[in-house]
What does this fold into?
Amino acid sequence: LLIASLGFVTNIVCSTCNGYYLFEASGGYSPRWLADPRFVLGAALFVAGYLINRQSDHLLRNLRTPGETGYRIPHGWLFRWVSCPNYLGEIIEWAGWAVATWSLPGLAFATWTAANLVPRARAHHAWYQAQFPDYPPERKALVPGLW
It folds into this structure.
C-alpha cells in the first residue's frame, strides 16, 4: 500500500507541475509550436516509446497460459536484446514529452521516470540471470548492446 500511495502522490505532483506549466506559467504554446522540430521529434519519441511499452507489456501479460504458475523468460520483440523493453519504452515516452514540451517540468518528469526505472531494470535483469541459468547472456538490462 505504501508503494502504491507513493506512486500516486508522485504522479499527482508531476501532473500538477506539468499542467501548471503548460496551461499557466508558459503562457501557452502557439499553433506554430506543432511544426517546431522539438515538438515533432518529441511527439515521435513519445509515440515510439508508447508503442514499445505497449507491445512489451502485451508480451509479458501473455507469457503464461490461464492457470499456469511459475516464471518464464520473455522472448521476441525487443526482449531479444534487453530484459526490460517496457521500461525502455516508458523512458523514451517521457523523454519525448520533455522534448515536445521543452519544459523544466517535462524534463523533471522524464528524469524522475529514468531514476525510478533504471534501477528496477537492473534488478529485474539480475533476477532473470539468477533464476534462469540459460538466460541469454547477450541480453542487456535496458539499453540494447550497452547496458
In short: The chain has a mean pLDDT of 94. The two ends are 31 Å apart (CA to CA). DSSP finds four helices and no strands in the chain.
